[in-house]
Amino acid sequence: MNQKISPPSRGPVDHDVRNQIVEAAAEHFSRYGYEKTTVSDLAKAIGFSKAYIYKFFDSKQAIGEVICSNTLLKITTTINESMDGAPTASERFRRMFKSAIGASVQLFFQDRKLYDIAAAAAGENWNSVANYDLKLKQTILDVLQEGRASGEFERKTPIDETVNAIYFVMKPYLNPLLLQHNLDRAEDTGVMIVNLILRSLAP
Amino acid sequence: MNQKISPPSRGPVDHDVRNQIVEAAAEHFSRYGYEKTTVSDLAKAIGFSKAYIYKFFDSKQAIGEVICSNTLLKITTTINESMDGAPTASERFRRMFKSAIGASVQLFFQDRKLYDIAAAAAGENWNSVANYDLKLKQTILDVLQEGRASGEFERKTPIDETVNAIYFVMKPYLNPLLLQHNLDRAEDTGVMIVNLILRSLAP
């Protein structure tokens, strides 16, 4: 189910109020869960009227999107930072997968209530998740192109197929709905899977 | 959670009664769900006393184990039959994964209520699931050994590591708890993933 929502922003002057709502909502969701909270609950908790909140956000999901985007941005930043200075494309790939699993486990599961938003977002394919997936595929593509250019990776397979196949192999370790069933040994399994992927990329 | 249960069988003379209970229970679970049904509900539906059912099965799970074993045996049989007569190890591997996905989608999801038992079994790692996993790993090992012997597959990676890595890459398409999130495109994605695995096996 791909739910289209209009951009939540209603002008830069209201930026502070928006932030205030998002922060209070994140706190509220993390205590009471995303699914169980209504916009009325939020309004009561923040001390705003429901109508005032609707001036800034079309729906609860629009607030959830901002929280989710912020979380996924943290994961993307962790991934990118981990890859800095890696000497080879293989090593960049290893670091990408390892840091992606580590950051996902930490951000989705250290606080079970944040899992609640992430699970809704992943289950309903929110825009924030679709954007995150696009960025991840772009990162995979960048590493592949680098490794193909340096002769580290094979060049016969159409690169789009390779990107998609790797994305689908990685997904169970990044999507919170799937990762919850792999949590115990996600990091160990991740190492085995990266090794398999790198063998598949050998020239 | 690895729940040990004692063997449900209490002697061959009672074989027919056991079958009767399993069949009636399968019918009842498939209409009302596994989780929601108690042994009392089953007894009432079958027309036996609860004590009589307990003469044959230690628990509801013991009955569920038989139903689950039967289902998983159907999947294993489908996989093995699909592999018969394949000319190469690569082709055997392709057929294994394709038929495993097809049979899992059909058996777990064509009847959502059978999904209910399969999900409980997978989530709690019942003996029937552990046995199925062992058989699957053995099948992967057999194909790998065949392909290594014929020179079709590389021989450098320790074979146990290869078996485990392939098992973990396949798992999201066989475990019903994970498969439910991949259902829409499990078969297409499966083809891409098999291609990636076969590239990883190239000498």
From TrEMBL, chains A, B:
<dbReference type="InterPro" id="IPR036271">
    <property type="entry name" value="Tet_transcr_reg_TetR-rel_C_sf"/>
</dbReference>
<dbReference type="InterPro" id="IPR050109">
    <property type="entry name" value="HTH-type_TetR-like_transc_reg"/>
</dbReference>
<keyword id="KW-0804">Transcription</keyword>
<dbReference type="GO" id="GO:0003700">
    <property type="term" value="F:DNA-binding transcription factor activity"/>
</dbReference>
<keyword id="KW-0805">Transcription regulation</keyword>
<dbReference type="InterPro" id="IPR041478">
    <property type="entry name" value="TetR_C_27"/>
</dbReference>
<feature type="domain" description="HTH tetR-type">
    <location>
        <begin position="15"/>
        <end position="75"/>
    </location>
</feature>
<dbReference type="GO" id="GO:0000976">
    <property type="term" value="F:transcription cis-regulatory region binding"/>
</dbReference>
<dbReference type="Pfam" id="PF17935">
    <property type="entry name" value="TetR_C_27"/>
</dbReference>
<dbReference type="Pfam" id="PF00440">
    <property type="entry name" value="TetR_N"/>
</dbReference>
<dbReference type="InterPro" id="IPR001647">
    <property type="entry name" value="HTH_TetR"/>
</dbReference>
<protein>
    <submittedName>
        <fullName>Transcriptional regulator, TetR family</fullName>
    </submittedName>
</protein>
<keyword id="KW-0238">DNA-binding</keyword>
<dbReference type="InterPro" id="IPR009057">
    <property type="entry name" value="Homeodomain-like_sf"/>
</dbReference>
<feature type="DNA-binding region" description="H-T-H motif">
    <location>
        <begin position="38"/>
        <end position="57"/>
    </location>
</feature>
